[in-house]
């Protein structure tokens, strides 16, 4: 006879003197911590963007959409999946209650959809950001390749998997209807294809800072910021790589509800880290200013993070090779200017003369804002 000590799905089931293991708390903790962290970074980015201009760009709106989907997936719905039984062993008496398996599969389906499409919007935001930077022809081809990969693998292919793999799609959790599904190999192949697509696009995005260092002469402070973005981008790539063996183990597991925790944690971290890294370039100057105040003066000076309240030279020059890094003329000061350190400063206004050799004059405010 089963004596259940707790009625909530997140707690362990007690049968007699035996307490059934439940890994749900691992998923809940990871979900809340990573979601709060990445959401705060995204809100910070939007706040900084608003200080520059109230008109948000396409990249900003896509990021906002991705953050909202990620938040909804991880705060309410991950908690719903844990309360519904994710993290429990299949032999746990918890599953003997009618309807619990159906409810859990339904919550997992919704959470997976939200997570996947949140990743799609985050990737699309990065693509829009890089497009606005207007790199040289060679790298722009790679950006367009990443756009095609993101649309095909992170959106269209996922739509087909979620809503056409089994017909009707709600037969995934509704056992009262007749189900017709494609072979399991299709689902497995799609899962691996999405992971590989994420790795490829991550590497393309991570190469962007390296392209800047090769073709644009930047200050030491900016170079350190660019290197940091490159290294952090590799963290997201590492998570995607780690997801491959995790997916392989899950698809062959005899304890799908318990082992699904590992795969869910990988997916949560993958999107959260992607959001954090994608929001770093627009926050580079703000972060550098904070580090300049926190780090010892000598160390900050070595990294080129010394706070500059006034310009040391009347004219600052930024060189770029032909065909690389065009600077837009929009009056809303697009956030990509932060990478090239051409953003407005409270203490000085800068002007841009758009030639192969771009000169920034301190005394020409009118040329910066039409």
From TrEMBL:
Pfam families: Fung_rhodopsin (PF20684). It is a multi-pass membrane protein. It is found in: Membrane. InterPro entries: Rhodopsin_dom_fungi (IPR049326), SAT4-like (IPR052337). GO terms for cellular component: membrane. Keywords: Membrane, Transmembrane, Transmembrane helix. The chain crosses the membrane at residues 27-48, 60-85, 105-130, 142-165, 192-212, 224-242. It comes from the Eukaryota. Residues 44-288 form the Rhodopsin domain. The keyword Transmembrane applies. Belongs to the SAT4 family. This is Rhodopsin domain-containing protein. It comes from Bimuria novae-zelandiae CBS 107.79. The lineage of its organism: Eukaryota, Fungi, Dikarya, Ascomycota, Pezizomycotina.
